[in-house]
Design brief:
This protein is mainly β and about 375 residues long. It is built from one helix and 30 strands. It has one helix at about 5-10; strands at about 40-45, 60, 65-70, 75, 80, 85-95, 95-105, 110-115, 125-130, 135-140, 145-150, 160, 170, 180-185, 190-195, 205-210, 215-225, 230, 230-235, 260-265, 270-275, 280-285, 290-295, 300-305, 315, 325, 330-340, 345-350, 360-365, 375-380.
């Protein structure tokens, strides 16, 4: 099911107005009272069943799913020591196997590493793809198979990295100098969406001068007067922001409370904001902003987000009770998995293998929960995911 179905069937809103084209032709329109523009987020039953008792790795999973630990901070994996504070991640096809890339959200040494898997899931090797950067939080993959690693610092940069480890990572300064969080590519409009982790952060899009080359282009900021409805975009006058932050350069810019993960598919870019615990949807086809999730339970501490071709969104919690929650196309929110015993950590980097059968993610600070992330754990879950 296409991800736009989530919007066409009303999304998951609490007090958010949906109108116009998002309702037209909706498969579930009959379930909404005539004239109604409100749909309340609701907790529903998981298509996989509820998470069971924790397994040997401390991961509570639905029936039919299994977990394994693929890497631990400070321990060798594939010939290298795995980095501290694992954060945003993505998967890439690699011949008969695949690669999982993971950022390191630590000061000064940050960067990103990669694990190469064989066709049966065996670990072939691991290696660094970015070093010497600062607090690399989230990011995003590109259609041309590179990884955008984002620095979550004042005047942070976006680095374009080669997940295959053959080319040196390069800063893409035209994408702006701000507290970058995540990136999501929209190949239909040939833009890259960017979130900003500030209490009054903005939502941006970068329009490269040539699609596939991020060295030059135009940085724009989303402008709107309300939380839902039509939006416009305005150019950021000075993306380098040596004196005035990018989020303060355009008076009409809409501000969001702590931008986190973002994920694009099928004409919609979903993104999360931790300050108000919301999941948003930017309908790029109609240039409208909507709220997908706005509630306190079951999803708490919204952070990284990914999805599947079936239209399911997987949202990781920063804190909460250490769950990855599932948002289905029929407007139901339900826990998918839970990590037990990691109360002072957060779940980061959810990403599916290219064939959709394996989900990777990390507990950034692990069971010890130390701020330096020296007890980080990276997991793999295998099972009958909807694809």
């Amino acid at each position: 099911m296409h991800r736009r179905t989530l919007l066409r069937t009303g999304g998951l809103t609490a007090g958010a107005a949906f109108a116009g084209s998002l309702w037209q032709g909706a498969a579930c329109a009959a379930a909404v009272a005539p004239g109604s523009v409100h749909v309340t987020a609701r907790r529903g039953a998981s298509p996989y069943g509820p998470p069971g008792a924790p397994d040997a790795n401390g991961v509570a999973l639905p029936p039919g799913f299994t977990s394994r630990i693929v890497a631990r901070t400070g321990r060798r994996v594939g010939g290298m020591l795995w980095h501290a504070a694992p954060d945003g991640g993505a998967c890439f096809a690699d011949g008969d196997g695949w690669i999982y890339v993971s950022n390191s959200e630590i000061p000064l040494l940050g960067g990103a590493s990669a694990i190469r898997f064989g066709p049966g899931g065996e670990i072939r090797e691991a290696y660094r793809i970015l070093s010497g950067t600062n607090l690399n939080c989230a990011g995003g993959r590109t259609p041309w198979n590179t990884w955008l690693s984002c620095e979550e610092i004042l005047r942070g940069r976006v680095f374009e990295c080669d997940p295959y480890g053959e080319r040196a990572a390069m800063p893409r300064l035209a994408m702006g100098r701000f507290k970058h969080e995540a990136a999501a590519c929209d190949p239909d409009r040939e833009v890259v969406y960017l979130t900003e982790d500030e209490s009054d952060g903005c939502f941006y899009r970068f329009r490269p001068a040539e699609w596939g080359d991020l060295t030059a282009g135009r940085l724009e900021v989303l402008c709107a007067t309300s939380d839902t409805g039509p939006v416009t975009w305005q150019r950021v006058p000075n993306p380098a922001a040596p004196l005035i932050p990018t989020r303060h350069q355009v008076g009409a810019a809409k501000h969001f409370s702590g931008g986190e993960g973002c994920h694009y598919d099928g004409g919609v870019c979903f993104f999360t904001t931790k300050g108000d615990n919301r999941v948003w949807a930017y309908d790029a086809e109609n240039e409208r902003l909507e709220i997908v999730y706005d509630a306190d339970s079951p999803l708490t501490g919204v952070d990284n987000i990914t999805g599947t071709p079936a239209g399911d969104l997987y949202v990781a919690e920063d804190g909460g009770n250490m769950e990855i929650n599932l948002i289905t196309p029929d407007r139901e929110v339900t826990p998918f998995l839970r990590i037990e015993g990691h109360a002072k950590s957060e779940i980061t980097g959810p990403a599916f293998s290219p064939d959709g059968t394996r989900l990777y993610f990390s507990s950034q600070r692990g069971a010890r929960g130390d701020a330096a992330g020296t007890d980080g754990v990276t997991y793999e879950v295998t099972g009958p995911f909807r694809r």
